[in-house]
Amino acid sequence: MTSYLNTENINRSKGGVEYHPLRPFLPDGARVLFLGSFPPQRKRWCMDFFYPNFINDHWRIEGQLFFADRNHFVDLAAKCFKLDEIVSFCQQKGIAFYDTSTAIRRLKDNASDKFLEVVEPTDIPALIGRLPQLRAIVTTGEKATETICASLHIAEPPKVNSYCTIPDFSPIVLYRLPSSSRAYPLAFDRKVEAYRKMFEMIG
After folding, report:
1. Which of 17, 27, 48, 154 could anchor a disulfide with 91, C-beta 3.0 to 4.6 Å?
2. Would you call 3 exposed, middle or buried from its count of C-beta atoms within 10 A (0-12, 13-18, 19+)?
3. Is the peptide bond before 171 cis (omega within 30 degrees of 0)?
4. pTM summary value
């Protein structure tokens, strides 16, 4: 099994600063790039990949959307996600993942974006340069949206379920979706429909 951990960064994390523990996942032909804020603390992970928190519904949304089964990527007995199936699916569908920060401080001992201080923003133009078929960058939270807008000089951040063009990188768009966190007050089925519309829009 391929490891997506960035052990060099994990070893660098000290003094309250955490460096991104995962390498960017950028499959050939990727047309969509999901950029979150930063992974949760390792104690909340059930796999070494993006959206690793078992109570986050990102992979359930993808399962429902593409396979009509919210548990398609879920190992219910082990209470974890099926990493190999997720990676294969994302490679086939051209879905890339990383985050808008490469180093952060947690101002409180939790996973809330509200208490993340960005120490080093990600070099997003460099990621874009590695994805020649990219059609859309997708954010699902306020922190990630704010960080990418600051990095790419986007004056008016898109509202949830809308998108805007990215200066200097047209026709690539920044598309904002509702968060897959269960703390976000929107029914699961409505989140699935929001994600469906995004994928239909980019073709």
Report:
1. 27
2. exposed
3. yes
4. 0.94
Contact 34, 138 (CB under 8 A): yes
Place of tokens 């047209």: 170
In one-letter notation, the amino acid at residue 93 is K
Chain segment 53-95, per-residue pLDDT in tens: 999 999 999 999 999 999 999 999 999 999 999 999 999 999 9
- Structure confidence at residue 15 (pLDDT): 79
Burial of 183 (0-12, 13-18, 19+ CB in 10 A): exposed
Helix (H) or strand (E) holding 104: strand 101-106
CA–CA distance, 50 with 48 (Å, rounded to integer):
7
pLDDT value, residue 112: 65
Residue that the structure tokens 């699961």 belong to? 188
Per the document, the length of the chain is 203
Q: 39, 52 in Cβ contact below 8 A? A: yes
User: Residue 87 has which token pair?
Assistant: 């990676």
Which residue type sits at 53? N
